[in-house]
Amino acid sequence: MESALIGIGYLVLGALMDGMGSSVGMATYAAVPLLACLLWLPVLFRGARVTTEFKKPADQKAS
Q: In the chain, at which residue ranges do the beta strands (DSSP E only) sit?
C-alpha cells in the first residue's frame, strides 16, 4: 500500500511540475505535509491522543 501511495505521489508531483513549472509545482507538493503538520499542532498542545479504542458509557456493563 505504501509503495502505491508513493507512486501516486510521484505522478501528482510530475503533473504539478508540468503544469506550474518545477519550483512552483514542488512548492505546492511540499505544502501538503506542511499543512498536515500545522493542523496537527492544536492536537499536540491540547494533549489529546488519537485512539481506535471505544469506551462504553459508565452506565453500561462490560460484556
A: none
Query: Quick one: pLDDT band at residue 46, thresholds 50, 70, 90?
Result: confident
Hey, what's the torsion of the CAs at 8, 25, 14, 18, to 10 degrees?
140
Exposure class string for 11-39: b at 16+ Cβ within 10 A, else e: eeeeebbeeeeeeebeeebeeeeeeeeee
Cell numbers given for 21: 513549472
Sign, Cα dihedral of 12, 15, 20, 24: positive
> What letter does residue 58 receive in the DSSP assignment?
T
Decide if pLDDT at 62 tops 60.
no
pTM of the model: 0.53
